[in-house]
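In the design runs reported in the main text, the only information available to the sequence generator was the tokenized backbone. The following block is the verbatim input for one such run; it is reproduced so that readers can re-run the procedure and compare outputs position by position.
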């Protein structure tokens, strides 16, 4: 069913990138952030709605691990043909109050319910701290080309497993979690992550990015400045018993984390830099794409108390450029990591989306003197 790419990442292939990464080159280089996946792969052959084949899952990000302490956050949509719940209150309050979950388009509701239940049952929902209601952040991309999306296979126990299993350290990439059935620039896509270390106002900070990449047209795919999509114009997806998706159809969700002390308006500015990283890889924000981004800061703990003044730190706007640069660089690398880590997948009706071939990618980079 799947051809393995051996768990490699973009740098393992010699792809050049700017900037210095953290230890894990992942969103978890921001201390306290944990990530969990539940991957659902089951069955082969013709689509039987409600039975499969199943190629989907859920990915969760906990800004402070399993601890209730809202973080400052901001969000931005480059193109809004998608969904990220909870953003109305996030925009109003400036806080991300819980976890983030990524899944497929038709599993947003079930995932939302499960996230709310987990936060209550696991004691994450802290009424002693003044929390009395929940507006979970759940975002989606469409996996219906490979997955029985109308079978609603993501269940409460799958979301609980991802949340209970969320850890720091290395992050699994490619065909995992919410990225299991996703495509990227008409190759197999999915989950990718990257990070950057930086200095701003004389202090060291980290920016980490995680993407669920399901967007882009082949002809626009660019890696290290090389027109890879034009150099590898074959090995296109195969779709049986249904029309092929429009080139560029799909979405990308990008989550940006930092330990720099940014306020909500500054985090919104950080989220607005994500499209520059997308563009380096060839993303243009197609009409049929939901390109939605959220940025949060783990600095300034304890700011969500319900009475009295709060004292906090913030970076001056005049010192913020290194964070913008880090977000752009990490977004670019996270998308490419998703492509490199992903494996060829056969889904419903034998539909096949091929992995980016590593050898041909390296040949193209050598041809343009980038390797």
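Verbatim output:
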């Amino acid at each position: 069913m799947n051809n393995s790419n051996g768990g490699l990442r973009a740098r393992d292939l010699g792809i050049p990138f700017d900037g210095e990464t953290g230890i894990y080159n992942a969103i978890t280089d921001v201390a306290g952030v944990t990530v969990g996946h539940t991957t659902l792969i089951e069955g082969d052959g013709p689509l039987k709605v409600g039975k499969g084949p199943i190629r989907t899952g859920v990915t969760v990000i906990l800004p402070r691990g399993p601890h209730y302490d809202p973080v400052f956050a901001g969000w931005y949509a480059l193109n809004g043909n998608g969904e990220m719940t909870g953003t109305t209150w996030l925009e109003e309050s400036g806080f991300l109050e819980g976890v983030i979950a990524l899944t497929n388009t038709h599993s947003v509701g079930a995932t939302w319910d499960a996230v709310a239940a987990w936060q209550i049952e696991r004691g994450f929902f802290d009424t002693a701290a003044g929390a009395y209601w929940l507006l979970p952040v759940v975002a989606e991309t469409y996996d219906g080309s490979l997955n029985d999306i109308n079978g609603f296979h993501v269940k409460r126990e799958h979301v609980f497993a991802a949340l209970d299993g969320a850890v720091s350290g290395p992050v699994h990439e490619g065909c995992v979690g919410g990225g299991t059935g996703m495509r990227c620039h008409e190759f197999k896509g999915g989950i990718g992550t990257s990070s950057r270390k930086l200095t701003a106002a004389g202090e060291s900070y980290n920016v980490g990015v995680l993407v669920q990449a399901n967007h882009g047209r082949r002809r626009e795919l660019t890696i290290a400045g090389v027109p890879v999509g034009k150099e590898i114009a074959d090995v296109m997806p195969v779709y049986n018993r249904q029309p092929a998706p429009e080139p560029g159809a799909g979405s990308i969700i990008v989550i940006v984390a930092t330990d720099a002390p940014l306020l909500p308006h500054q985090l919104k500015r950080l989220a607005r830099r994500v499209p520059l990283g997308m563009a380096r890889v060839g993303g243009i924000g197609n009409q049929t794409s939901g390109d939605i981004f959220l940025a949060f800061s783990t600095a300034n703990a304890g700011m969500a108390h319900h009475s009295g003044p709060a004292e906090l730190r913030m970076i001056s706007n005049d010192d913020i450029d290194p964070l913008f640069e880090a977000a752009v660089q990490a977004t670019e690398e996270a998308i490419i990591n998703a492509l490199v880590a992903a494996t060829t997948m056969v889904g419903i009706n034998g539909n096949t989306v091929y992995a980016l071939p590593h050898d041909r990618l390296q040949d193209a980079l050598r041809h343009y003197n980038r390797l």
